[in-house]
Task: inverse folding
């Protein structure tokens, strides 16, 4: 792994090392890699950490919220159909409705997990910020 030039603008990332509390974290370039990744290395102690980028966090939040809301709407519509069938004793394919409800619940759980990961990544990124003294 190659460290970027130390004279690079520190204000761009403003991430400090949690291990030694004195060094700054700089993006690490792997051989053959076109651009910076989420891997950072301390310029003081050499500590390496994976810190999620803001773009990834924002896309996780957006995807989780929009997908979760869409899945929730589909779940509510299928639940309404099933409850109406039970209430008025209408002959519908209960197995199909139950399967669609289950699939919607799986999607809701998946999108909730995505939002959970985004929140966790926000906390991780904030923990590497330069403390304001």
Result:
């Amino acid at each position: 792994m190659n460290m970027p030039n130390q004279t690079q603008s520190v204000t761009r990332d403003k991430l400090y090392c949690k291990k030694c509390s004195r060094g700054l974290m700089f993006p690490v370039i792997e051989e053959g890699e076109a651009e910076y990744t989420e891997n950072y290395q301390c310029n003081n102690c050499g500590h390496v950490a994976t810190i999620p980028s803001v773009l990834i966090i924002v896309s996780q939040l957006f995807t989780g919220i929009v997908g979760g809301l869409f899945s929730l709407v589909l779940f509510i519509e299928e639940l309404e159909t099933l409850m109406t069938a039970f209430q008025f004793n209408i002959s519908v394919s209960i197995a199909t409705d139950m399967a669609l409800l289950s699939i919607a619940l799986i999607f809701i759980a998946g999108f909730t997990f995505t939002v959970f990961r985004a929140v966790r990544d926000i906390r991780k990124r904030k923990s590497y910020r330069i403390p304001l003294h």
